[in-house]
């Protein structure tokens, strides 16, 4: 369903004081994105018109974050949800038509598109003046209660702070997602009072006003209370994040990814993984990470903004960030790939190797215990155990260049800036301070000295 007459309004002006944060609640992240991003996606799925986001607190930050995905209405003072929604009236009334207005909240990220489609259908079929989403959670908590009459018709919503003991016991609560018709909605919003426990203009009072006018109001009761789960605290942020990532992992499994233990991974909703890849427990996969097909992501691997081509193997305990890994490459266990690392096809990075701003050509290997930073390395280079690029002179960083087919013996230091030419060898234990020409052997270690019988003589001295 995508209907260009539907106007979507997202309420997002409140700070969210229970978050105890200097940052506005809707910009807090869950599953790799800000809470409001999920709501913007939902709006885009049901209407061709960009949603109207009602902004107040930290409006510049919200506007900068949402950019051209939204239009904006400003609520200077947070006088309540009814007042917030009214700020969208000028933008909607421009058309002078009576249009459906879908109201969402920036802090309710788990609603499914199918639920909104059911809401639209119920609204249309009943020719309703208003249709809202309600739910029956185990604990009705602080949600507004949905009051129905003897024949089960919705008559009003009462906020917890304004409710009687009997009303507090009602388990059906207001999910904060509504569909109205613009003409009646804005007329009633303009007549609301603040005569309630919180001294606010309650959007929820529109329901009782419509019913008083003899108009038809219905509630769509959703089975899964997650659908209208509102984030108000850090604990609720964690719960929302868990559900967002659970859904994402389930989708990935549907698409052919194996998780050895889907409950023990952290996979942000922005992460893409190809079919037949296997992910082991305690993997933490974040940001714009893209993993190809037939890869293996080992236990306790932490990836952030990493691209892995097909058939990559990332072994236990590897940490990688802002890195690109070529096909059939193998990394770890316990490797540390820092930003700017680019590995070609079939590269092997072994245990306890750290890289940074380093490009590795195809089939190059650094299998053990090395630091490779600010380096450009050609194809088929072999970097022996314990090789260190000494890229920092205490003031500036310098570059190491290893041309193709170079062999670096174990325990060598490459003092940058330095270049080792094509096919050259560096003997083990060397400290290389000058460029090595192509095809040469260069070594810089002390000649070995051997004193025959020395040990026996020393023992006899006693
Ligand atoms: C609201 C409903 C409650 C419902 C719950 C569902 C009212 C009066 N109550 O309560 O019945 O069960 O949502 O989650 O509507 N906002 C503004 N400007 C304001 C006040 C709020 O933009 O002046 C925004 C907030 O930033 C938030 C949304 O409106 O995104 C909801 O406001 P909030 O204060 O969280 O309402 P609840 O107390 O949760
Ligand atoms: Ca809320």
Secondary structure elements and pairings:
Elements: E1 7-11, E2 29-30, E3 33-34, H1 35-46, E4 52-55, H2 59-66, E5 71-74, H3 81-86, H4 89-93, E6 100-105, H5 113-125, E7 130-135, E8 145-148, E9 154-158, H6 165-168, E10 173-181, H7 182-189, H8 205-212, E11 217-222, H9 234-254, E12 258-259, E13 266-267, E14 272-273, E15 278-279, E16 284-286, E17 290-291, E18 296-297, E19 302-308, E20 313-314, E21 319-325, E22 330-331, E23 336-337, E24 341-343, E25 348-351, E26 354-360, E27 365-368, E28 371-377, E29 382-383, E30 388-390, E31 400-402, E32 407-408, E33 413-415, E34 418-420, E35 425-426, E36 431-432, E37 441-442, H10 454-460
Parallel strand pairs: 1-4, 1-6, 4-5, 7-11, 12-15, 13-16, 14-17, 15-18, 16-19, 17-19, 18-20, 19-21, 20-22, 21-23, 21-24, 22-25, 23-26, 24-26, 25-27, 26-28, 27-29, 28-31, 29-32, 30-33, 31-34, 32-35, 33-36, 35-37
Antiparallel strand pairs: 2-3, 6-10, 7-10, 8-9
The structure holds uridine-diphosphate-N-acetylglucosamine and calcium ion (CA).
Q: Could you describe the largest sheet, including whether it forms a barrel? A: 12 strands, parallel
Identify low-pLDDT runs.
Answer: none
Question: Count of helices?
Answer: 10
Bound molecules: uridine-diphosphate-N-acetylglucosamine, calcium ion
Content of β-strand: 25-35%
Instruction: State the total count of DSSP E strands.
Output: 37
Kindly state the percentage of residues in helix.
Answer: 10-25%
Termini separation comes to: 96 Å
Mean pLDDT: 96
Overall 3D shape: elongated
Q: Helix/strand/pairing class, anyone?
A: alpha/beta
Give me the Rg, rounded.
Answer: 31 Å
